[in-house]
């Protein structure tokens, strides 16, 4: 098997881990280094009875109503690596390998399940229920990168709003752990031991039938289902997981959106990753106030390497519209993902911001002095956005006036690069 992604990391902080009465979510998406992530917005919609939904590889029945969502997603797939809906639910996913065989056929990708959970779930628990029901009905599987070389995996998910859930899967089997306070992170490994809040009804029977568990004593999902010889990438994830836990614990009781951004930018821990053919290709931080009268704010880079990118704020509002300059070109039936056999050619999926950011990265690498100036100005732009968000949450600026803030920040960033 070809070398897979070295890392992916999700984080959540709930009071009293957070400095304020907020839930803070963060994720780095670590993918093939030339893969483009776009940030797309889809409004809430009503669908005719009998509608069919085209996911990345398979079709499934559509539901009557879907929530508005904002997604950071590899441009070639239907699903997403991370995102949020207008109900305040956030989800991020991680790749894992277990004793259950990975389905070689095409089914729902873990990224498809993530998007479906956001479109159909109005709480973290309901989104979890959506994912597990669809997992049972359709399974998970299919090529997980834009390449003909086979590469598939199972998934774990971190879902949150006023509470958080860790959902870990093995084929159609799953367990979930409810997190109500403090800090938690997940990486490319199973983390739920005996602290199981809810599980697939056949989980333990399958484990016993396979000879993985003798039916005696406490049942530890991670111990029972982790492969005896796990892939190297899962072993490498242990160091990142410990590093992420240490960074969260250092800020336990004082976690803010800014702190979460600094964690995602941390290179010594490997959380901000650039190794061989893989790197952090997109990042997201969400600020979810416990006060339901206050809007949630979601920050996206839409570009690789958060240490050299700007987090730009997105707020759901009545005037929210897609920002075309962070959306990749569409190729319709000629897209290599749509043709059989799949992925026999490459297309240029770079959006406008990605192209402009590439130029800036090249400048930073070839001219460090000029690169430092660029870096400082970009951070000032980010700081100004964070100040506006703080003013909004303090009631100094109406939230509905920030509906175009993401567009404004993207536009300003591109003009600065030019």
* Number of DSSP E strands: 19
Number of helices: 9
Strand order of the largest sheet: 3-8-9-10-11-12-13-15
| Silhouette | globular
What is the succession of H and E elements?
EEEEEEEEEEHHEEEEEHHHHEEEEHHH
Flag low-confidence runs: 1-5
Report on this model:
The protein is α+β, with helices and mostly antiparallel strands and 418 residues long. The protein has nine helices and 19 strands. It has an eight-stranded antiparallel β-sheet, with helices on one face. Strands 1, 2, 14, 16, 17, 18 and 19 form a seven-stranded antiparallel β-sheet that branches. A two-stranded antiparallel sheet has the order 4-7. It starts with 8 loop residues before the first strand and ends with a helix. Mean pLDDT is 92; it is low at 1-5.
Topology:
Layout: E1 9-14, E2 22-32, E3 37-42, E4 45-46, E5 52-54, E6 59-61, E7 65-66, E8 69-74, E9 82-85, E10 90-96, H1 110-120, H2 124-138, E11 154-160, E12 164-170, E13 173-179, E14 182-186, E15 198-199, H3 203-209, H4 221-225, H5 232-250, H6 257-264, E16 274-275, E17 278-289, E18 297-300, E19 312-314, H7 352-366, H8 368-393, H9 405-417
Antiparallel strand pairs: 1-2, 1-14, 2-17, 3-8, 4-7, 5-6, 8-9, 9-10, 10-11, 11-12, 12-13, 13-15, 16-17, 17-18, 18-19
Helix pairs in contact: 1-2, 7-8, 7-9, 8-9
